[in-house]
Design brief:
Helix content: 25-40%
Shape: globular
Number of strands: 2
Radius of gyration: 15 Å
Amino acid sequence: MGPLPDMRITRTPEEEAFWPTYEWNDNPAITDETGATLTRRKYDRIESCTLEELHITRRSERLYTMGIPFSTETGHSQPKLRRWGIAILTSIPTLT
């Protein structure tokens, strides 16, 4: 196997200004861990936030942690919300 291809994306100034403000719920086509589209009802259970507010922290070479802010009305656990967060984060373009 050779080295991984360069996945960097060239962006316009408008795109560069947009991505730091990207919020996960700006993309309604994101699917959950079963492949089902996250509905607005599910989106509304998680507070809208920036990527920075997820507090993604590298704990080791392969371990990252993050927290998903959610409303008090949610009936979902942090593990389920984190799975949704992972689906959301892996659905957006590379943030390099």
